Amino acid sequence: MTHNFGLHFTQELGNRFGSPTDSWPPSAEQVTPFFAIVVNALGTDDAARWFEAARSAHQRVVTAEQNRAHHFGFAHHLDVETEAHQEPTLPVVAAFEAMKALYEVTRRDSGVDVDVFFDCALRACSRDSGRPGSTPVAAAAPA
Questions:
Q1: pLDDT digit string (tens) for the chain, length 143 residues
Q2: Residue ranges of the alpha helices (H) in the chain?
Q3: Which of 32, 63, 78, 130 is most deeply packed, by most CB within 10 A?
Q4: What CA dihedral angle connects 136, 112, 39 and 13, to 10 degrees?
């Protein structure tokens, strides 16, 4: 599958966090490959649906934690939102495990909420599919 998700995702991170990249949250570099795994496994359109589902799952976790209520964690909520258990194919399992990993990495970075990364990923998917997204970061002038 050919697409420019990695480039578009990096551009969206630049739109969100600015330049230079050393001002970005530490987890940005770590989670980028996991987002790419989801897109490579599922394709741009299905990955976008999964990123929306992950946002919902994350919100369920946050709400439960704020209310000090019992919950089954992000992986459970993601499974419910995506219905990944219905069709555990190799691409679905790869995407599911990548989502769990990027979520755990981001939750350990106090400088960013994982929802920001989901938003950047959704914008990158919309660029990849030709749907309107955000404007690319301006390229640096040559020295």
A1: 446 898 999 999 999 998 888 889 999 999 999 999 999 999 999 999 999 999 999 999 999 999 999 889 999 999 999 988 888 899 999 999 999 999 999 999 998 899 999 999 999 999 865 554 444 444 443 43
A2: 5-17, 27-42, 44-66, 74-82, 90-107, 114-128
A3: 78
A4: 10
